[in-house]
Design brief:
The chain is an alpha+beta fold and 297 residues long. The chain has one domain: 3-Layer(aba) Sandwich (Beta-lactamase). It has nine helices and eleven strands. A six-stranded antiparallel beta sheet has the order 1-3-2-11-10-9, sandwiched between helices. A three-stranded antiparallel beta sheet has the order 4-8-7. The chain has a two-stranded antiparallel sheet with strand order 5-6. Helix 4 packs across helix 5. One of its GO terms (biological process) is beta-lactam antibiotic catabolic process.
């Protein structure tokens, strides 16, 4: 099973593109993703209209892809559900310890505070995908609880697999998280409708994700202030989560505009051997974003 999963992640093939009557509306994105696939990038993408569930476009949306930090959304769902439970100590202060430390994204590793409230750690994850806060919360609630919650939501191709690690050895999960564009668009749609666990839980998770400062991928096309976009800007409102790792770029979220609202997910898996390859992937994701913006605005 593990070898099959690894094979799916490392195989490179052209994607199956579908869009029906919406294909002309998303021609720019289809063209960009098609060119990337021809050049060896594994692509998976999907967008649906929030009002009626109509599929606007899809490219291999059933394929399980590495999604890096997007899996942290599942941790936030479990934490939000715990905070809604009167038996859970919502005001607990959590300490960081030496085993939690990891580099890369996040600001807690640069702060003096040795301990923070649970909700503050979740906010740090929503805002900066904070790796240290992620590991402390995983240690607190447990990966098994996150997995059980994920299964209870009916997700079969999306999972948070592990702690955040600076280096992944042969005994570690090969990726922090995996997901399919199909399931990720469903997850964000359900969060937006208040259907994940409860309306209170969904709104709490949406609130944390609305702090996200990474608008470098699909959301780069929306013209929003990365540091302040919790309220509408020119009629545009975004909630999203991104994932970045070596050879991985992923972006999933909900975009609302004056005309429509969409849930989207785009994942790329590529040979990150030079800057040109990386910039091509990011530009392809931005082209999808431009199509989404035209649809909602």
């Amino acid at each position: 099973m593990e070898s099959e999963r690894r094979a799916r992640h490392t195989s490179i093939r052209a994607g199956r593109h579908t869009g029906g009557e919406n294909q002309d509306n998303f021609a720019r994105g289809f063209t960009a993703l098609g060119e990337l696939a021809i050049n060896g990038v594994q692509v998976s993408a999907r967008a649906v209209d929030l009002s009626n569930g109509k599929v606007l476009f899809s490219v291999d949306d059933h394929v399980v892809m590495p999604t890096a930090s997007i899996g942290k959304v599942l941790l936030l769902v479990e934490v939000a559900a715990r905070l809604a439970d009167p038996a859970f100590n919502a005001f607990a202060i959590l300490d960081r310890n030496s085993g939690d430390y990891v580099g890369d994204s996040g600001i807690w590793q640069h702060l003096q505070a040795p301990a923070l409230p649970i909700a503050d750690l979740a906010a740090l994850i929503g805002a900066t995908s904070d790796n240290l806060a992620t590991n402390v919360l995983i240690r607190t609630v447990g990966l098994e609880a996150v997995r059980a919650r994920t299964e209870s939501l009916g997700l079969k191709r999306t999972a948070l697999l592990d702690l955040v690690r600076d280096h992944r050895g042969p005994d570690d999960a090969p990726q922090l998280s995996i997901g399919s564009a199909n399931e990720l668009t469903w997850l964000f749609s359900a969060l937006a409708r208040g259907e994940i666990v409860s309306k209170e839980v969904s709104q709490r998770v949406i609130g944390w994700l609305s702090l996200n400062t990474d608008l470098s991928m699909v959301a780069n096309a929306f013209g929003l202030d990365p540091l302040a976009h919790r309220t509408g800007d020119h009629g545009i409102l975004l909630v999203n989560k991104t994932g970045t790792d070596a050879g991985v770029r992923a972006d999933a979220g909900v975009l609302r505009g004056p005309r429509a609202a969409v849930s989207y997910a785009v994942s790329m898996y590529f040979a990150d051997t030079n800057l040109t390859a990386r910039l091509a992937v990011l530009d392809g994701m931005r082209q999808v974003g431009l199509d989404l913006l035209e649809y909602v605005h």
